[in-house]
Specification:
Its EC number is 2.7.11.1. The protein has 361 residues and is an alpha+beta fold. The chain contains twelve helices and eleven strands.
Length: 361
């Protein structure tokens, strides 16, 4: 054993220890006494390390990755896909090729004439849902900007949501481009990891962020937007579609600050002679009493949500809210809400005609 005597430095020469020094000398500090001028530290005699032979590092095969070893594309690494900080051989080669390689790549973006993710340059994230991410994207050939909704296949399969994604697509296809107040589906495609919905880009964000930023909207502004929502709902209902999750977060604003209804993931396509749906979906502050009591929704459920939205635009707060989801639902069933002072009388009359409970408890 070797005994090492560590002398304390004179006060005038001592310096504040760095964090690294404190970490390295923690055992010395804890065993030292403030009253002793010296402290002892017992060190074991170091043992010689055995010699080892190391083989030369393996080189990565320049062969392109197979399907079993393929990596998710770059648009997934920041969100839905798994992260991988190691570049592939193909990506390193692309960097070296420079502009010539970029031109060659652009000629091969579409596979067999079909649209693919390689046809777009993905930008900032615009929004995120439970199983999807919406990103700004530019179509490389035309320069046209879109909002592309990327749905994670793994999540959809894991939580049995494939039917939900299919229903959203079918709903948007039925609505088509027949109304400017509804987000249009331009195309869809898929790859190994994701489904893609190419949608209209609404550059001015969602209504909820505007209400939050301004606190509330004027009566005139609310009238302007409410009329657009009613017009879009009338078209939607004429096509046999119920939105079932109408709320300010799902009201987008286009370049001219006009409404575009989006997010039809919970939308319902009504068949001939069918007026109601039996699935429990929606957001707690906007669900209607018939959903809570009878577990059904209809076109009137969207009108109930419209009444809640008009109230929120003017009052700057939810119509119904409680300390828990259950208490919020109790207030909805009891129509337990009140108007703040100064609420416009005509708007108040409209809200009272929309937020109506016709179920006998």
């Amino acid at each position: 054993m070797i005994r090492v005597e560590v002398s304390r430095a004179p006060p005038e020469l001592s310096f504040p220890p760095s964090l690294a020094d404190l970490s390295r000398n923690a055992s010395v500090i804890s065993s030292s006494s403030s009253s002793d001028s010296t402290s002892s530290l017992i060190l074991n005699t170091p043992r010689p390390r055995p010699a080892r032979n190391f083989s030369s590092p393996r080189t990565r095969s320049p062969q392109a990755a197979s399907r079993n070893t393929s990596r998710p594309p770059t648009y997934l690494t920041g969100g839905l896909g798994r992260r991988d900080d190691h570049p592939t051989a193909s990506s390193t080669t692309d960097v070296k090729r420079g502009a010539v390689g970029a031109r060659s790549q652009s000629r091969n973006r579409s596979v067999n004439g079909r649209v693919s993710a390689q046809d777009y340059e993905f930008g900032e994230e615009l929004g995120e849902g439970s199983y999807s991410t919406v990103k700004r994207a530019t179509h490389i050939a035309t320069g046209q900007e879109y909002a592309i909704k990327i749905l994670d296949k793994g999540h959809l399969k894991r939580y049995n949501k494939m039917e939900t994604a299919l229903a959203e697509k079918n709903t948007l296809v039925r609505l088509g481009s027949g109304h400017p107040g509804i987000v249009r589906l331009h195309s869809t495609f898929q790859d190994e990891w994701s489904l893609f919905f190419v949608l209209d880009l609404a550059r001015n964000g969602e209504m909820q962020s505007r209400i939050t930023r301004l606190g509330s909207l004027s009566t005139e502004c609310t009238r302007y937007y409410a009329a657009q929502i009613v017009d879009a709902l009338d078209y939607m209902h004429s096509k046999g579609v119920i939105h079932r999750d109408l709320k300010p977060e799902n009201l987008l604003l286009d370049d001219d600050f006009r409404i575009k209804i989006t997010d039809f993931g919970t939308g319902k396509l009504l068949g001939p002679g069918v007026e109601t749906a039996k699935t429990f979906v929606g957001t707690s502050q906007y669900v209607s009493p018939e959903l809570l009591e009878a577990n059904e929704t209809s076109r009137s459920s969207d009108l109930w949500a419209l009444g809640c939205i008009i109230y929120q635009m003017i009052a700057g707060r939810f119509t119904f809210t409680g300390l828990s989801e259950y208490l919020t639902w109790q207030k909805i069933k009891q129509l337990d809400y009140s108007f703040p002072e100064g609420f416009d009388s005509e708007a108040k009359d409209l809200v009272q005609r929309l937020i109506v409970c016709i179920i006998s408890w």
